[in-house]
Amino acid sequence: MLNKKLKFILLLFLCAPFLSNGQEVSINLDSNIVIKETPAKEKKEIAPQKIAALRSALLPGFGQIYNKKYWKLPIVYGALGTTAFVFANNLNTYKDLRLAFKVKYFIRVHKDSTDYYKVDPNLLPLSEESLRFNRDQFRRSLDYTALLFVALWGLNVIDAAVDAHLKSFDVSRDLSLKIKPGFSEFSNTHGLSITLAIR
After folding, report:
1. Residue 192 phi/psi, 5° resolution?
2. Buried b (16+ CB within 10 A) or exposed e, 77-86
3. What whole-number distance in Å separates Cα of residue 41 and Cα of residue 198?
4. Are residues 97 and 126 in the same domain?
């Protein structure tokens, strides 16, 4: 009996290196070896809408390229580029107004400012109150522009995901909703019926 167990263990260690991942070995005590192929596990495929959404989240327009909707690229980059340009313009104007307000404040309080030559000459005639109001307005515009940029980026992701999801949608003439005349057994009358075939 001990001899059979030793054979069993020895055969097990000798066969192990030659087996692939998809094989199953069974060895009985009579030293018979049976090798069976096990079915490979199916790889979980990532849904196309998830791939498109991830690509668009990483780089705007990349999901549209994945969906082969190249005509949407100018729309995506036009919207995001315009928003980025407006944001940069608002930021520069906000910085100029903030500097001008600070200089006016230092001139009024300390009667001196070393940054006077850095101020945009167009802003010097404005009053301190006017500079503060405009500075606050451009600060608010900066926030709105940043939010709009993020919203447009999100719309780009949503568009790519929805487009990938609807790629397999059936738009053939053979639709499942049909209107046909006939007899209704339920109400025991003649008339039109709407039939929806769920496939």
Report:
1. -100, 140
2. eebbeebeeb
3. 31
4. yes
